[in-house]
Specification:
- Strand 1 (98-99) and strand 2 form a beta hairpin.
- The chain folds into four domains: 1-30 and 262-357, no CATH class; 51-261, Serine Threonine Protein Phosphatase 5, Tetratricopeptide repeat; 363-436; 458-552, Serine Threonine Protein Phosphatase 5, Tetratricopeptide repeat.
- It has 552 residues and is mainly α.
- The chain has helices at residues 2-28, 54-65, 69-82, 87-95, 107-117, 121-127, 131-145, 150-167, 172-183, 194-209, 214-223, 234-243, 248-252, 254-260, 264-287, 297-315, 319-335, 340-357, 371-374, 376-388, 392-411, 415-435, 439-456, 470-480, 484-497, 502-514, 518-529, 540-543; strands at residues 98-99, 104-105.
- It has a two-stranded antiparallel ribbon.
- The two termini are 33 Å apart.
- The chain is built from 28 helices and two strands.
């Protein structure tokens, strides 16, 4: 069995290495333009546009369903060029400038394309060919013109879509856009699950009826992307990539559910494919001189996939592959000077790599005026690394830097962000106290961080933010203080918060062994051993039944 496992592992390493070589080449070479129509799923959307404009319009709608907003925008522009009086082509262009789950809009662009159709709402309504199209135009009007506040606009839009859904309950497109509008009103820190549950109840029956509808599969995943409900979205996750193989986002999205369920190998594979697709598509967009590329979801998709790939490799204990991912990210940044999003994505990967592996060789506390010195996760990583090295001066400086950022966030009304920074601040200070042997203070600070996390933060829908789950750190510090029974509880709470996270499972093995809960320890060992694709060598010390004798 072990021989077979070793063979399989070797094959996977070869496969991934080859893919990495390919991606490296892809990042450095120009791509030929692909003029073929993208494969983005199947939909039916009745409209009053000319027959010649139908292909472009439907491609645009499918682009919206797959969050390939640049694809959508280009397609709707084509539809409007073909049929200049086609109001829904302008509706689509406006919708291509709204990014509902990221609480972002290109407000001016959305307004401009609607005003190009007609300078007044009444004029736009008059050009809308059917009763449904007038309702769509009324809804998009709310999305861009109803208020100065984005959240208020999102609710106004959702209310308009609800009216459409009530009037035409059997129209799948209306239903799916209504479900998405519900998700678009959710913000980090919101209590309850009502809007997500309603969205899921709408899109899941549609997916049963139309098994190749991209929006139905996509928004099923988003609606159920949390520890308690993810298992319900597994069927959608298994089919979505095949529904829309031309969409980098569709290739990535199944990994949301795979991550929640601890299917790390599938997270790796999903994001390898997504990264390759996103790099290729971004090059095509650049070749076509697509406007607003810097704000494009597709342009962002490459580093998004790379960050998830890196995290999954860390969870599998393949630190060598994670190192390759980190190096790849750095190379992309070096090849694209001035690309702020790529640089920020690299800093995220760098911070997470140091926090997860305790490899602090690349991390330092940079000048407060630099982008590195303003990056909260990287500041926290530098502070934790300094505490590990007993460099209390640097650790204290990192803590004070975070404190300043927290106060700035509080003063500017960014309460949720302020709480995230406060967790990091307390984590760094807890590490300092631990390094100084002040166990009680370390425990108390870690508990305070854990309480903030569990009581105020939304459950992660991806790699956790803050990067070091506070409850996991609380468990580690309790175990270091010899309080194993309490550590077991802390790790279990952390695993409720971030399910299947390997460092928490490994920590739980150690704590359970220390508390002589041998049944629980063995249960967790079995969980580790049975994880597909995992590097057992990385965790061999914890898989040894004698670990209880070596904790300290």
């Amino acid at each position: 069995m072990l021989k077979e496992l070793g063979k399989m592992k070797a094959e996977r390493i070869v496969k991934v290495s080859l893919i990495m070589v390919f991606l490296g080449a892809l990042a450095g070479c120009s791509q030929l333009e692909d003029s073929s129509a993208p494969d983005l799923g199947n939909i039916s959307f009745d409209n009053s546009g000319s027959s010649d404009a139908q292909e472009a319009f439907l491609t645009g709608v499918k682009g919206l369903h797959n969050f390939q907003f640049d694809v959508a925008r280009l397609a709707f522009e084509d539809a409007a060029d073909i049929d200049p009086t086609f109001a829904m082509a302008h509706w689509g262009q406006a919708m291509s400038n709204n990014f509902p789950l990221w609480a972002r809009q290109d407000l001016s662009e959305g307004m401009e394309v609607l005003n190009q159709l007609a300078p007044t709402f009444e004029g736009r309504l008059a050009l809308s060919g059917t009763e449904k199209e007038k309702a769509y135009m009324t809804a998009v009007e709310a999305l861009f013109f109803s208020s100065e506040d984005k959240l208020e606009r999102d609710f106004a839009y959702s209310n308009a879509m609800e009216k459409m859904h009530t009037k035409w309950p059997d129209d799948h497109e209306i239903s799916i856009f209504y479900a998405l509008s519900l998700l678009g009103t959710v913000r980090p820190g919101d209590e309850g699950y009502k809007r997500q549950a309603l969205a899921a109840s709408i899109v899941m029956p549609i997916l049963e009826k139309n098994k190749t509808h991209p929006g139905a599969a996509h928004f099923t995943i988003h609606s159920l992307d949390d520890p308690d409900h993810a298992i319900l979205a597994l069927p959608a996750a298994k089919v979505y990539a095949n529904i829309a193989p031309s969409s980098a986002h569709a290739l990535h999205m199944p990994s949301h559910i795979f991550l929640q369920l601890g299917m790390w190998e599938r997270v790796v594979n999903s994001n390898i494919e997504s990264y390759a697709s996103a790099v290729s598509r971004t090059k095509q967009l650049k070749a076509n001189n697509v406007k607003n590329l810097a704000n494009s979801a597709v342009g962002r998709e490459d580093f998004h996939a790379l960050q998830w790939l890196h995290y999954a490799n860390l969870m599998l204990g393949h630190y060598d592959r994670a190192e390759e991912n980190l190096n790849m990210a750095l190379k992309v940044v070096e090849m694209n000077p001035g690309n702020n999003f790529a640089h920020y994505g690299y800093l995220n990967i760098l911070a997470r790599h140091a926090i997860e592996t305790a490899d602090c060789s690349r991390v330092r506390l940079s000048s407060p005026d630099s982008s590195e010195g303003k990056h909260d996760a990287l500041i926290a990583a530098a502070g934790m690394c300094a505490a590990i090295d007993r460099n209390m001066e640097t650790a204290s400086a990192a803590k004070e830097r975070l404190k300043g950022h927290r106060i700035q966030a509080e003063d500017s009304g960014r309460a949720y962000n302020a709480l995230q920074i406060q967790i990091l601040e307390k984590e760094v200070e807890a590490m300092m106290k631990l390094a100084a042997g002040e166990y009680d203070d370390a425990v108390n600070l870690a508990k305070e961080a854990s309480d903030i996390e569990l009581n105020n933060m939304s459950t992660p829908s991806g790699p956790p933010m803050p990067m070091k789950p506070a409850s996991e750190l609380y468990g580690e510090i309790l175990a270091a203080a010899g309080r194993f029974d309490e550590a077991v509880v802390a790790y279990q709470r952390s695993l409720d918060w971030v399910p299947n996270r390997t460092p928490s499972i490994v920590g739980l093995i150690a704590a359970a062994s220390g508390s002589e809960n041998l049944i629980l320890a063995e249960e967790m060992r079995t969980k580790i051993r049975s994880t597909p694709g995992i590097n057992l060598d990385q965790f061999s010390a914890f898989l040894d039944n004698s670990v209880a004798n070596n904790i300290n």
